[in-house]
Amino acid sequence: MTGWDGLKSRSAGAYLGLAVGDAFGASVEFLTPREIRAQHGELRDIIGGGWLGLRKGQVTDDTEMSLALGRSILGSGGVEPPSVAEAFRAWMRSKPVDMGNTVLRGISRYRRTGETQVPESEQDAGNGACMRCLPVALACLGADEAVVAEANRRQSHVTHHNKLGDLGTLTVIRMVQRALLAGDRAELKSLADGLATAEARYRYDGKRMENPSGYIVDTLRAVFQALFATDSFESALIDVANRGGDSDTTGAILGMIAGALYGADAIPERWMSALDQEIGQACVEQAWALLSLSPYMNPTAADRPNFTREPGKTRRNFPDRRWPAD
Ligand SMILES: [Mg+2]
């Protein structure tokens, strides 16, 4: 698919891929590949359950925090840490089914102090900022690289402040953006390889990463290995989730990249119909709303939003751009 139809399919595919990957992987989170084989043979369907006791098709914090971040960006017209922190606090109040320790610590600190950036820490190299980065990729499509990097740091540092995490998450954002603009798997691989060259801990050409932990390096190694060893959304997601470990998040990150790469139509129907329908609808609506905010869709200087302006400035009105009629 080319042109508008292609971009619509890839942006919806990225968000639906994130949610489907989360719901799919969550059933086997914290299991080892051996335990998964004993219980499921090969996991191929969205079945719910898992250690969280999920309904079939229910998503977890990966998708919910992405939607919260997306709402914040749409509400404030940029990535403004006070708005992001408030969105995360509101989400925390909704009694989510799951929440990572670093996220809990960061939001609790915000509630206590009002500070919207946690101090830099070695402890913050978890995957919790990466799993929710998709709204930044969509809203900043076509923005200068420095703007994308700053927008990512702003959303990340509300809970996770770590250079290794920033670097890995920025690479995922760039991979999603390249795929949205019809980049192929080889182009995405060159971005992943660039990350591995810049930071050797991200090398993923060694041993097969099984049972990946929540450490961003383990997570992205598993995601890259699965993504580049397969040639479809379905085979890539099955590959990464059956590695177990932090499989809802490897599923979510792989899902957003593979969904952008292969498009919404590549997500198997059985997974789409299993996914919580309200969540699926929110994902598609947000994908298009965030994209219409992007510099890519607002190419002239006067229309370009500033995703990194200081908070509190008057919110600018965005032209009401709609997708051209099909
Ligand atoms: Mg999760």
Note down, in words, how this protein is organized.
The chain has one domain: ADP-ribosylglycohydrolase fold. The radius of gyration is 18 Å and the shape is globular. Helix content is 56%, strand content 0%. The chain is mainly α and 326 residues long. The protein has 14 helices and no strands. The structure holds magnesium ion. Magnesium ion (MG) is lined by residues 60-62, 98, 248-249.
Largest sheet, described in full?
none
Number of strands: 0
Domain tally: 1
Strand content: under 5%
Level-1 CATH class name: Mainly Alpha
Helix/strand order:
HHHHHHHHHHHHHH
Percent range of helical residues:
55-70%
Unreliable residue stretches? 314-326
CATH architecture level-2 label: Orthogonal Bundle
Q: Measure the end-to-end span.
A: 13 Å
Helix-strand category: mainly alpha
CATH fold-type name: ADP-ribosylglycohydrolase fold
Integer-rounded radius of gyration: 18 Å
What is the CATH superfamily classification? ADP-ribosylation/Crystallin J1
How large is the count of helical segments? 14
- Rounded average pLDDT: 93
Give the topology.
Elements: H1 3-25, H2 33-40, H3 61-76, H4 81-93, H5 101-113, H6 134-139, H7 145-156, H8 163-180, H9 185-198, H10 216-228, H11 233-241, H12 247-262, H13 269-274, H14 277-293
Helix pairs in contact: 1-11, 1-12, 1-14, 3-4, 3-14, 4-5, 7-8, 8-9, 8-12, 10-11, 10-12, 11-12
The chain binds magnesium ion (MG).
Give a brief outline of the structure:
With 326 residues, the chain is mostly helical. The chain has 14 helices and no strands. It has one domain: ADP-ribosylation/Crystallin J1 (ADP-ribosylglycohydrolase fold, Orthogonal Bundle).
